[in-house]
């Protein structure tokens, strides 16, 4: 009866109490250390932009400590923000981006709705085609597109090359496929009962889209809008190819082609321009970070 | 009484049916769907599909675009040393940059994941900044950091007794610099994707692994990596496409120099096709990107569809 002995001593190895939490604390400290290193690596270029933009050209060429501003001045900002040329670049960029965002939304939201809800002949193929189009890079299409618009100009007499509004035709090739793709994902995640109820109540397809789908998928819509804006604001290759006159340039190309004169780099102004050019996306990102990240991660997944 | 009501209903319906065949067609599901996708179809057909085919046509013409030369442009390219330089540099650039981005992204995602949840937002926000700044703008900052005479990097390194480094002047250093800037720009994307994937791994799996006595390395190798496999594949392939087709960074940082040593397909196609106004040759150069892009795209599509089925 009493022969059964239960070994209650537990494991024989030496138990270090509190080792788990001590390990965690060290892991945490190392994490913070490396994260700080990576954060410095990430933030050095933008911070250096800011430092340089506050220096006068005399201080830049004096080769003092480049990481410190000894005589801070806003002269670079004042000079750029009062220069008609720079403001022109800014307006061109702003107009192009805003109109492209509008065009993109008008094309991609109805298309995504149709592709996710109204199964029709070839809809699955078209959805795949949209995704493949999104993978076609700008550097593959710029030469044929340039030639195409040149030929159109010869045939019809409508000269689109070297006009800022030619970009309104071209940027949607970058933004529409992506926005359609992520909107398909967002729309597909809406329960079917919701639009069935709307149809039973007598709503048309258009009403289902505007009254049900757009409000419910609003986060996705915001993410897509942010994406379309960022892409059109940052695009460099197409405006470089399609526009040359200084009054037709958008911001990235304008800064690079007008502030760099031959071998003379006016770094104070270039950095100021670059910072001002980076400001709109950064401001949007600062306020709408969660939507930004949602759009980023939705791109490679189905919803 | 009831019969009368029904009859009235049918009469009214036939009347509307007769009134407008067009309205009915518009109400039909497939017609409405077709009209809704029409702008998208037109855009893809006219501004993506047609130019892609057109560039194949362009590649078979001579410089003045008056005569058909077949594979003449390609034969010409194969005989030029610069072309092979570009092929080699494109592969070195894309492969090493993608591997570095994937590694750094994976490591940083782990560190962010380790940090308490309420502080993750702040770190994530800082680490994603490189991805948010337009690459053309941030590359200008790098160009200034690399500047040979007033360079901030060389100034800092001189304190450690490391002599002035020709960041963009020497072929090897220029290659290193363009990769460095590309890694700086692209690693945050990997970080965000991996972080999202890490968060989706159920905590129970790690607990089970810990109970079974798995150490830190085994937990990563047998739990984290298999769970993230699909996301890693999609992100890497996607980044391979974007990096391989990169233009902004190389164009602004080195413009292909010194002596064409950092040219990749996109920048060389621009140099030949737009600046050298030999459009057919430029089109032929950019067409060399297609095979690699196509292979990557096929694999991405496979993984994305698999992911869609899992969910």
What would a concise description of this structure say?
The complex is a heterodimer of chains A (303) and B (311). Helix content of chain A is 72%, strand content 1%. Chain A is mostly helical and 303 residues long.
Which percent bin holds the helix content of chain B? over 70%
- What number is the mean pLDDT of chain A? 83
For the largest beta-sheet of chain B, the strand count, sense and barrel status come to:
none
Distance between termini of chain A?
Answer: 64 Å
Strand order of the largest sheet of chain A: 1-2
Low-confidence stretches of chain A: none
Contiguous helical run count of chain A: 15
> What share of the residues of chain A does DSSP label as strand, in percent?
under 5%
Describe the structure.
The complex is a heterodimer of chains A (303) and B (311). Chain A is mostly helical. In chain A, 72% of the residues lie in helices and 1% in strands. Chain A has helices at 19-53, 57-61, 75-81, 84-117, 123-134, 138-156, 167-170, 172-188, 192-200, 205-216, 218-234, 237-242, 251-259, 267-287, 289-298; strands spanning 260-261, 264-265. The longest helix of chain A has 35 residues, at 19-53. Chain A is flat, with a radius of gyration of 28 Å. The N and C termini of chain A lie far apart (64 Å). The model of chain A has no long low-confidence stretch (mean pLDDT 83). The radius of gyration of chain B is 28 Å and the shape is globular. Chain B contains 16 helices and no strands. In chain B, α5 packs parallel to α10, α5 (81-114) packs antiparallel against α12 (216-244) and α10 packs across α12. Chain B folds into 2 domains: 1-58; 79-310, MetI-like fold (Orthogonal Bundle). Chain B has helices at residues 2-19, 21-27, 29-58, 72-78, 81-114, 117-127, 129-132, 135-145, 152-158, 171-199, 203-211, 216-244, 248-253, 265-275, 279-287, 290-310. With 311 residues, chain B is mainly alpha-helical. The chains are: A mainly alpha (303), B mainly alpha (311). Chains A and B meet through α1, α4, α5, α6 and α8 of A and α3, α5, α6, α7 and α8 of B.
